[in-house]
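**Paired protein data**
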Amino acid sequence: MSYISIENQKNHQTWRIHRPERGNALGPTIAKDLLRAVHNLRDSVHKPRALVITATPLVKEQQCTWIAGGDLKELADLHTADEARTYVALLSDALQTLDELPLPVIVAIDGAAIGGGAEIALAGDLRLATARSELEFRQLKAGLATGYGTSRRLVELIGLSRTQSLLYRTAKISAAQAAEFGLIHQVVADAAALEETVSQLCADLAELDPAALAAQKRMLWHAVHSHPSSARSAELELFATLWRNPGHSAFLDQFKARGSEAKS
């Protein structure tokens, strides 16, 4: 049994973490499911135009939890450093592979993303959230630290100083504050608005040339991870591979046709 459901839609594929009775808490079970799903997508010949990652929130009274940090029942069974390393590598590898997929990855957050849940929330290329969402960095309160490549990811997104403040203060910030920091790209009113906004975003992305999108994502990866001269070289090469691809040729042909009509 997998706790990640996969649904193919018109313009995208949606992965939904669905273990609400445990608050979608993270442990080896969900980590293996996520790594399997991302490897299958990476290796598939026919990829969706975009990927959406979300979770079924747990709602209790006035509390809405998107991902409730670590699954303490599962994690308590990890007794050695080697066991812990094996576990954390599952999620670290999964999120790294998301970075490398040649398509936009959207994370749709509805509720509190706590500890490791906040780390999952920050994965992907575009991050959207409902107004009731929160990011809570409580890892140090558990005697741990970030573990899924999130230290690097946070510093890349908001810089070292703000990252230090969030992690050392074990901060809890609202979706609105996260948007001000640059951790969230868009905040919407509620779950219905989130679904509608994500659907429209995927439709907009589907209108773009997939080769150009993949190249742009790769350029941005090099901009962050490579030496400036290597990033420049990669951008030049990727740009050259795009020249006169079907999307670019269609754009130029339309321009030429309009010019011919204007002259006649």
Residues 210-263 form one domain. The first strand starts at residue 4 and ends at 8. The mean pLDDT is 93.
